[in-house]
Design goal:
By secondary structure, the protein is an all-alpha fold. It has 6 helices and no strands. Helix 3 runs antiparallel to helix 5 and helix 5 runs antiparallel to helix 6. The chain is rod-shaped and about 155 Å long. The termini are far apart. The relative contact order is 0.10.
Length: 245
């Protein structure tokens, strides 16, 4: 009977020790709703920032694409065709016969062939000068017709190039292509003006040579009439053989 108090005391000590050495996992987990809500809001804000960054990157990428389109060069060029047309016209002007587009040559001709008839010139010299002037007029007319034919031949090339350039301008993907198409259209207009200038110059040259020929012929005619009416230089009849007589 005396052992019972000792047994009760030992049991109490054992229970106390067991409770003291129990693992931490046996403790209860406490849920804090305020902390959970704060964490959810923080995650939502971070996700929104990521979405904003993605949208910004997409906008920058689209901007770069648009810039690339604006900087894209036009694949079609009419420079070669226009240059060939100009060269054809320039070649004809450079091939002008006899009195060409040269100031020194023109001045030389008007001091000799187109100069006023001199009393010291022989009749043979007057005839040769008249023949030279007539040949100059014929050559000028021929050159004018050749230039005009070339200009007319260039019209078909101009029509094709204008159609191609207008189509390229309407289908331009960016500002650079539209600008290049516009510049080439201006180049085409400049080439057409060059053709028109060449045709006007050739026609004017032919008309001026013809006018100079008539003016000089009138002056020469007066000199020949003066010689004919001069004493001792009148008409002298002579026998003429015709038709192998």
């Amino acid at each position: 009977m005396k052992r019972l108090p000792y047994l009760a005391a030992a049991s109490a000590i054992t229970i106390a020790v067991a409770c003291a050495v129990s693992p931490a996992s046996a403790q209860l987990i406490v849920f804090d709703p305020n902390n959970y809500a704060q964490n959810v809001l923080t995650a939502a804000r971070e996700l929104q920032q990521i979405n904003n960054q993605i949208t910004s990157l997409q906008n920058q990428a689209q901007m770069l694409i648009n810039q690339a389109k604006h900087l894209a060069s036009m694949p079609y060029s009419s420079l070669q065709q226009l240059d060939q047309s100009i060269q054809r016209t320039q070649l004809l002007l450079a091939q002008a016969q006899r009195i060409a587009y040269d100031i020194k040559q023109i001045d030389q001709a008007f001091t000799t062939t187109y100069a006023p008839a001199s009393t010291n010139e022989s009749d043979q010299a007057l005839i040769l000068n008249a023949q030279t002037r007539w040949q100059n007029s014929v050559a000028g007319l021929q050159d004018a017709l050749r230039v005009q034919a070339t200009v007319v031949g260039n019209l078909d090339t101009h029509r094709k190039e204008m159609s191609a350039l207008v189509s390229s301008s309407q289908g331009a993907t960016g500002a650079l292509q539209a600008s290049q198409a516009g510049n080439q259209l201006l180049g085409l207009q400049a080439q057409q003006l060059a053709d028109l200038t060449a045709a006007v110059a050739a026609q004017g040259r032919a008309q001026n040579l013809e006018t100079a020929q008539r003016t000089t012929a009138q002056d020469q005619g007066r000199e020949q009439l003066r010689r004919f009416l001069a004493p001792g230089r009148g008409y002298q009849p002579s026998r003429v053989r015709m038709f192998h007589q």
